[in-house]
Design a protein that fits this description.
5 helices; Protein Transport Mog1p, Chain A; alpha+beta; about 230 residues
Length: about 230
């Protein structure tokens, strides 16, 4: 995929239901053991190993691109830049696990040592549920429309500090055919950490029941850790 196409995917946007100890203290388990192992990702996925520094570099490039993006409504530009900067900061302090299916549906699970201010995300999404953006990436114009809808958190996570959203985006790079993708994302803060998950598909929309299981599995692994 070209750099411009990769930017479209990111710009327009990365189990079991058993019981939990729900400890409030920080886990002693190393953070690389708090993200999901390959066997804990949904069936049909294959874990992908991507160096952290490469991911962080991509996020830094994204943040610069967002700062030079034309956004409509105009009042949504500031919140979009703030969210991009916040995401970059959180992910730079995260351990990340990534898996994908053969049709390139992407599953991302990360645990960050920094506590995310979820209220800022909720405020931004409520203020700007639909945003149009135009930018230039690798000399090509990128046009996109992103629509966000709030989801109910999985039943197993009721009562926790968790939020979930569905994002639908249509983006065009230059004269190419539009790229449509759907993302389910969930976040929670617990034990002095942030747990985030994303499922992104550029073909069929992800199954929400599968997302609920994925989100629950990721959170409960941190809840139950020693």
């Amino acid at each position: 995929m070209s750099a411009a196409a990769c930017a479209v995917v990111v710009l327009a946007g990365c189990g079991s239901g058993g019981g939990s100890t729900k400890s409030d203290s920080a886990p002693s388990t190393p953070r690389d053991q708090l993200v999901l192992a390959e066997s804990e990702f949904p069936a049909g996925t294959k874990k992908m190993d991507i160096p952290q520094d490469k991911l962080q570099s991509t996020l830094a490039d994204l943040n610069g691109t967002m700062a030079n993006t034309t956004v409509s409504p105009a009042e949504c530009k500031g919140p979009q830049v703030d969210v991009a900067a916040g995401a970059k900061d959180i992910l730079s302090k995260s351990t990340i696990a990534l898996a994908a299916t053969e049709d390139m549906t992407m599953y991302v699970d990360y645990v960050s040592g920094q506590v995310m201010d979820l209220s800022k995300m909720v405020e931004n999404y409520a203020k700007c549920p639909e945003v149009k953006a135009t930018s230039t990436v690798s000399g090509q114009q990128v046009d996109g429309t992103t629509t966000v809808a709030k989801l109910s958190v999985p039943a197993a996570l009721a009562g926790t500090n968790a939020i979930a959203y569905k994002t639908t985006g249509v983006s065009t790079v230059g004269d190419a055919q539009p790229i449509t993708r759907t993302t389910y994302e969930g976040y929670t803060t617990l034990r002095g950490l942030t747990v985030g998950v994303r499922i992104t598909s550029m073909s069929n929309a992800p199954d929400q029941a599968a997302f609920d299981t994925f989100f629950t599995t990721a959170v409960q692994k941190v809840q139950n850790a020693k």
